[in-house]
Amino acid sequence: MAERAVAINRWPGAVAAALVAALVLGTLLAVVLRAEAGRGLGPAEWAAIRFTLVQAVLSAVISVALAIPVARALARRRFAGRGLLITLLGAPFILPVIVAVMGLIAVFGRSGLVNVALRWAGLAEISIYGLHGVVLAHVFFNLPLATRLILQGWQDIPAERFRLAAQLGFGPRDIFRTLERPMLARVLPGAGAVIFAICLSSFAVALTLGGGPRATTVELAIYQAFRFDFDLGRAALLASVQIALVGMAALIALRLSRRDTFGAGLDRPARRWDAQTATLRVTDTLWIALAALFLILPIALVLADGLPGLARLPSAVWRAAGVSLLVALGSTGLMLALALPMAVAAATGRGWLEAIGLLGIAASPLVIGTGLFIVIYPVADPVALALPVTGVVNAIMALPFALRILVPATRDVVQGYGRLSASLGLTGLLWLRLVLLPRIRRSLGFACGLTAAMSMGDLGVIALFADPETATLPLQMYRLMGAYRIEAAAGAAVLLLTLSFGLFWLMDKGGRGFADA
Amino acid sequence: MKYLSIATGLFAATTALADTPELTIYTYDSFVSDWGPGPAVEKAFEETCACDVKFVGAGDGAALLARIRLEGERSQADIVLGLDTNLTAAARDTGLFAEHSVSADYAFPLGWNDPQFVPFDWGVFAFVKNADLDAPTNFRDLGASDLRIVIQDPRSSTPGLGLLMWIKTAYGDQAPEIWEALADNIVTVTKGWSESYGLFLEGEADMVLSYTTSPAYHLIAEQDASKDAVKFSEGHYMQIEVAGKLKTSDHPELADRFLDFMVSDRFQSIIPTTNWMYPAVTPASGLPKGFETLVVPDKGLLVAPDKVQALREEALSEWLSALSR
Amino acid sequence: MLTLDNLRIDQGDFHLAANLTVPTGARVAVIGPSGAGKSTLLSVIAGFFDPSGGRVLWNGADITDAAPGARPVAMLFQDNNLFPHLTVTQNVGLGLRPDLRLDAGDTRHVARALDRVGLTGMGARRPAALSGGQQSRVALARVLVQDRPLVLLDEPFAALGPALKREMLDLVAALLEGSGATLLMVSHDPADARRIAPHTVLVARGQALPPQDTATLLDNPPPALRAYLG
C-alpha cells in the first residue's frame, strides 16, 4: 500500500542531484588523485579548524540573538514602508563580499564614522580587525537572513491565536510564554544552524578583517595549501574536513527547519493588541531603526564613496559588467535546470535530495575550480571555458538557497493540486508549465534573483582561469585596485552593487508581478 | 600538440590560413589587466615578430607557478612571465624551463647569472606613508612606536613574503623578537597587496607594506606628492621579477626573440609607468620624470634562490607563532 | 459497470475490504462514520492510492494499475478543485485538453458547459473573482466536458450553505441525467443521499457493503449506521 506519486517523475531530480554530487565530489577526487604525498594536517590546520568553528558559532548565535528583537518589532508594528524596509534589509545577503567589507570599514574602520564619533566624544577607539571584526561582518551578512526566518515564524502564528490572546487579556509576557516562546524554540535552532553552516565556509571576510594568522579559516587554509606549498593533498584533506563540517551543520539545519522557508509573504503583519504600550512602541522602533542603520549605512557609504568614480570608469569595466551579467544569467538558468527537478523530487518524498543540494555551501570554490581545471585540461582549453565554468560553480553555490526557497513552495503545489492534476492527466512538462511554474512564480522569482545577484558579486573561480577578455566585474574591480586605481575601483563597486540589486529586484518583481492568486 | 588531436585537426586549416604563429605567455593577472604593461607589450612585440601574442593571466606569481605545475609538460604556454627570485628555485625544480641566451646590463645591484630565468623588472619593498608623517627608520623603532601598519600574508602575497625575508635576512635569529614587537602595530594582514593598499588609502593604517616605487604612481599619474616611502637603515629587501621559456614550447625561436625583446628599450620603457617597478635594464631615455624623487636604499637585500625554500619555512613558522599569540 | 473485486485496503491500523458492483448509470451515495474510509475508497477507485489486494474493474477491464488520468473517472475533491492562476475557461478546458491547446470547437464546447451550469459569460474570470457556489459550478462544468462514465464526488460541496448545497446536488443530478454517467458520492448528510442517490454504499467496520436502496437503508439503519446517525 502506498500513496502514489502524483503524475510527477522523480528521476530528473535524481539525475540533477547526481550531477551536483559528481561535480562537488568528483572535482575533490580529481584533486586527490593529482596530489603528491603532502604533510597532512599540522597544528596550523587544526588551529584553522578551531577558529572556523569558533567564529561560526559566535556569528550564528549573535545573528540569531539580534534577529529576535528585530523580527519581533517587525512582526508587531505596521507602518508605511514596512514592506520596502524588509526588502532592503535583505540587501546585505546578496551584497558582494568585497563591497560589503569596504562598507563595514567605512563605518567601523579606524577612520570610519563610529571611530570619528568616538574620538570626537573623547572615548576610546574600537578596532574592526580580529575575531570580533569577522563576527561583525558575518552578523552583517546574516542578520537579514535570521530576521527573515524568525519573522516567518511569527507570521506563521495564526492571527486567530492573537485574537484569542487579546480576548483573554494576555499581556506581552503571557503572549511570549504561550505563543512566541514555543515558536522560537522551533525556529531558532534551524536558523542558527543555517547561519553556522554559511559562516563555516567563509573566506574573503576573514582575509581582510581577520587581523592576522590567528584568524585563518579552513577555506583560507585550503587556499594557502594550494598557493604557498602547492600541497594538493592537504588542500583536498582540508576540503573534505570542510565538506564534513558544513555538511553536518547543513543536515542538522535541514532537519530542524524542514518546513521553514525564507521566501515571500512577509507583508501581512498580524494585528496585535498586546503591544500598544508606549515602552514597547519605543523599544520596537529603536530596534527597527538600529537594524536598518546597521545594515543600510555601510551600503550607503559605499555608494557615496564610489559615485564620483562612476563617471570615469574605463571601458574595460563596462565590458566586464557585460560579461558578469551574462555569467549571472547563465548561472540562473543552470540553477533552475538543477533546482526545479530536485525541488519536485524533494517535494514528492525524496527529501534527502535537498541534502545533496546543500553540498553547494559545503564545497570549496577553489577545490571545485582546481578539480575542474584538472579534469578539463586534457580535453579542452580551460581558459576558453572560463565563463561556463564560473557559471556552473556559481549555480552550485546558489543551489542550497534556491532549494530552500523552492522546495516548500513546490511541496504546497504537490499537496494542494497533485490529485487534481493527476485526475486531469496533467503530467510531466505539461504539469510543469501549466501548474507548477505559475503556482511557484513568486518563489521562482525570488530564487532566480538571489542566484543572479550572488553570481554577479562572486569573484569565484574566474580568477583561476581568466584571460584579459573574459574578466568579470568583481575581477576587474580587483585589477583596478591592483593598479592603484582605488577611485575607479570604488566606482566599479557601485556598478557591481547596482547590477546585483538590479538583477535581484527585476527577477523578484517579475515573480511577484503575476502572482495574483 | 596541445589538446585532442581531433581538435587540432579541426583547427589546423584555420591556423594554416592565418599562418601567424601564436606566442602564449602566462603571466600574473595585473600584468594583463587593461592598466598593466600587457596591452602595450603585446602591441610592441607584434609589430616586430609577425606573430600573435596571447597573454593568459593567472592570479599572481605563486598562482602562476601552481598553474604551470598543474599543467606540466602538456602546458600550452611558451613563456612564463612574472615569477620572482623567491619562486625561481621551485620553478627550476619542475624541470619544465629551458635555458636562455640573453645577456644584458642589469640596473639592479647584486648581478645576475641564472641560466633559466631572465629578469624584466625589479622593485624594492618599503613602507609607504603620507609624506607629512614622521616615521621610524628601522624595524626596532617601528616595533616600539605606536604607528599602525597594514601588511600582507606571506602565504598568499609576494610583498608579504618579501617582508618575511626582509626581516629574516636583516635580523636572522632575532627575527622572532622583531615580529613580536611589531605584532601590536599590525592593524591587519590581508591576502594581497591590493587590499592592504586600499586600506591604507582609506586611512585605516599609517603605513602600508609596498614598494619604493609606489609614490611614483601618485606623483606621475595623479600629480599627488603626498605619499612617500620610508628608508630603513637595515637595508631593503628586493624583488626581481623574471620570465622563462618552457622546454615544451612550440615556438622556441620566437620565445627566445621575446626574451631578447624583453630586455630591450622598447619593453623596458613600458614598465615604469604601467607596472610601477624599476626596469631591469635602464632604457637609453632614462627613467620617467618623478622616479628621481624615490627613496633609494643604502643596501639591497636578497636571499639566493636556492636558499629561499629552507629559510622561508623557518621564517614562516616564526612569523606564525609570533603573530598567533 | 464498476466492480470492486475482493478489494483490500490497508494503511497502518486502518483496514477496509470491498467486494461489490455498481451498475452503469447508477447514482450511489457512500455513507458511513467518519474515519471509516469513504474518501480512501474513492481514492483507490480514482488511482491515488494503491490497494493491497484485489482489483478495480470498469466494464470488466482491470484498471487497478492505470494512472489516474487514464481511468474513466472524473473526480471532485473537498477543496482545490480549481487552479487559482487559470481562468474559468482554462480550468474547464483542462477537462478537454490537458495541454490547453483549445481550438475554436473546444472553446465553444467549454462555453456551452458554462451555459449549462449557469456561468454564461464568466469564462475570462479567475476563481478568486467568483463566489463559493460559482466555483463549484466551474468544477462541475469541467466534469461535464470531461465526459467520463464514472463521476466521483468527495464532498466537494461541504463548505457551502445548505440551500446552495441542495442547489448543487440538483445540478449534479440534472447534468448526469443528460450524460448517463455513474455517480459515487461521499456524504456526511443522509439528506444528500435521499435527495439524489437512489442507492447507498455503507462503509463501516472495515467493510464497504454492496449498494442498497437508500430509503430502506436510512429508514431501518443497521446498528453501525444507527450509532452514526444518532
What is the structure about, briefly put?
In chain A, 75% of the residues lie in helices and 0% in strands.
Structural features, described:
- The complex is a heterotrimer of chains A (517), B (325) and C (230).
- With 517 residues, chain A is mainly α.
- In chain A, 75% of the residues lie in helices and 0% in strands.
- In chain B, 40% of the residues lie in helices and 19% in strands.
- In chain B, strands 1, 2, 3, 4, 5, 6, 7, 8, 9, 10 and 11 form an 11-stranded mixed sheet that branches.
- The relative contact order of chain B is 0.18.
- Mean pLDDT of chain B is 88; it is low at 1-17.
- Chain C is of the alpha/beta class.
- Chain C has a domain at 77-147.
- Helix content of chain C is 35%, strand content 24%.
- At the A-B interface, helix 4, helix 9, helix 10, helix 16 and helix 21 of A face helix 2, strand 2, helix 4, strand 6 and helix 9 of B.
Overview features:
heterotrimer; A: 517 residues; mainly alpha; MetI-like fold; 2 domains; 22 helices; 0% strand; globular; B: 325 residues; alpha/beta; D-Maltodextrin-Binding Protein, domain 2; 11-stranded mixed beta sheet; 11 strands; 40% helix; disordered N terminus
Low-confidence stretches of chain C: none
The oligomerization state is: heterotrimer
Query: What is the structural class of chain A?
Result: mainly alpha
How helix-rich are the residues of chain C, as a percent range?
Answer: 25-40%
Largest sheet report of chain A: none
Along the chain, the helix and strand elements of chain A come as HHHHHHHHHHHHHHHHHHHHHH
Mean pLDDT of chain C: 91
Shape of chain A: globular
Low-pLDDT runs of 5+ residues of chain A are none
Q: Give the averaged pLDDT of chain A, no decimals.
A: 83
Total number of helices of chain A: 22
